[in-house]
């Protein structure tokens, strides 16, 4: 490749990334109109807490990224059920307002650009309870634990093993919407998975074609052990015959 051609490609890459970076910055806006068109009543780009005024009884949320909304009591920090919102500056979603709560807590998950190669697990559903995260090169846990929710960002794939001695794990692929945007969150809010080891990628599976689908979902494309092995073998046979 000539150096002129290489610098041309670099330039194109820089133009694309600088255009895209603005679009993927996380935010949450809460409106008092059903179309999310007026000026937002509450707005944040990082986790914050607002004093919640008496009299605000209807709210609609528009977010970029992955956020939670909690209505909490002033005194002891007791909160109502956590509400989760995700999107790419698209939906205008109804917020079930808990009046007379005193505090409105807005929590942002993950990095501002929605691409970080990190997976975070929570003991409770809806990203509640104690949490831990894993980054490359992964982690082996002496004591496996049951997690109830998790999220990860970007075009990343993680392998989850129930026990660190297991040979095979379950592959968690980024969702299709993340695949088409190049950024965003893949998550589950209500599950039960035993985590004994976490590895970045699913290297033993990478030779298998992912298959193209246009269904947009926020749940990961998971792949159970036997299915993966069958795909892997079928893929290998296909490659050895036709390549
Ligand atoms: C809705 O929010 C706007 C902007 O903050 C405010 O001017 C307006 O009075 C609010 N309307 C209602 C019905 O609360
Ligand atoms: C979890 O989030 C969903 C959707 O935001 C909400 O309806 C549900 O009440 C929450 N559950 C708990 C246990 O917080
Ligand atoms: C956003 O709206 C689309 C189309 O109505 C829907 O399929 C999708 O589930 C919504 N996303 C969220 C996070 O609510
Ligand atoms: C986890 O354990 C496996 C098997 O013993 C080992 O190959 C791997 O390097 C370990 N990973 C980390 C991050 O310690």
UniProtKB/TrEMBL annotation:
Signal peptide, first to last residue: 1-22
UniProt keyword terms in alphabetical order: Signal
Origin superkingdom: Eukaryota
Name listed for the protein in its UniProt record: Uncharacterized protein
